[in-house]
Amino acid sequence: TDPALKTLAIEIMVAHALRAAPAQIAAIVGESRASGELRAQALRLLAERRGDPAFAQALDTALAAGAPAALHRTALSLLLPERADRLVKEAGTVLASRTTPEKQHAIALLAQAATPAADAVLAPLAESLAAGKFEPALKFVGIEAIRAREAANPGLGAKLKAYALSAAGTAQSELLAGGDVARGRDVMANHLNANCTACHSVENAGGSEVGPNLRTIGSQRDAAYLLESLLNPSAKIATGYGLVNVTLKNKTEVTGTLAKETPEAVTVRAFDGKQQVIPRAEIASQTPPVSIMPPMAGILQPRELRDVVAYLASLRGGGRGNRPAPKQDGEP
Fold first, then answer.
1. Which helix (H) or strand (E) is 256 found in, with range?
2. How does pLDDT run across 284-326, given as a tens digit for each residue?
C-alpha cells in the first residue's frame, strides 16, 4: 500500500526482468490514483511481454489524453521500434496539446523513428526553424532531431543550413530556453570538470566566494547574459572579481582580483584575501581585468550548458527551500 515502496518494487522487477502476471501489472498502469511514475514503471515492466494483449491495452491507457506526463512519455518511448506509425500519430497530438518537456521528448523520438512519416512531421518544424519562428524552448531538440535526419533527408538538411546562415542561427540562441532546472542544478553541484562550487556560492550551504555569489542571479540577469557568462566569462566581469596585474614604478608586480578602483587608487585583493591599496602615482601599468573562469563550452556539452542557464535563471533567492524539485518529465 506504500506508493514509494511499490514504485521501488516495480523498478527492481524491471531491473531484473522479473515476470509478473500481466493483468496485475496492467491494473497498476490503469490505476488513476497512483503516481504517474509508478504507472510508468509498471508499463516498462509490462513491456517485457509486448505480445500479451494486456500490454496493448495498457499502452492505450497510457496514451490517453488525460494520462500523466511520466506515463505518457514512457508509452511514447515504448512505441519504438515496432509501432513507429503510431508514434508519428501520437507525436502530432503531443506537439499540438501537451507540455513543453513532452514536446521535446516527442521530437527526439521522431528522429529515432527514422521513417518517411516521421520526417514528414519534422518537416514543418524545420520550416519554422529556417524562418526564425521556432518555439524557443523546442529549438535545441529540434535542431538535434533535424541534424540526425539531414543525411537521409536532404530537404531537412537544407532547412538546417538556412537556419545556420540566418541571424537567429549565429548566437547559440537554442541554448537560451527549454533547459531542465533540476539537471542544471546537478551539473552545478556535481560536474567534476566544471567544478562550479569551487568559485561560486549558489545556495545557502556550501560553495565559495572566489567568484560572484549566484544565489539571486536569476533576478538580476537574463538568460542571454547568463549564457554569455558561461561561453565567454571575460566579456562582462562582475565588479571585484576580475584578475589584474599591476606593475609599480619600482618594478614590483601585484597580482590579484580588482576589488576597487578610483581616480586616486587601485585596490587589489590577493589570493590569500588580503587587500592592497595602491596609489595611482605609484603605478607604471595595469592589465585589463580578466576572468579566472575558463570558457564552459570546452567543458560542458551544449545540452548541459542549456540546463545550467535554466538553473541559474531560476535562482532568485530564498535558499535551499526554493530548490527546484527533480522533474519526471524532462527531456531524455
1. strand 253-261
2. 999 998 888 899 998 999 999 999 999 999 999 865 434 443 3
